Amino acid sequence: MTSYVSHTTVDCTDAYALSRWWQSVLDYREDPDDPNEPGHEECMIHSRDGRHRLLFIEVPEKKQVKNRIHLDLRPVEGTRDAELARLTELGAAVVADQRNPDGTGWVVLADPEGNEFCILRSDAEVAGGRP
Question: In Å, how far from its chain's centre is CA 35?
Answer without folding.
Answer: 20
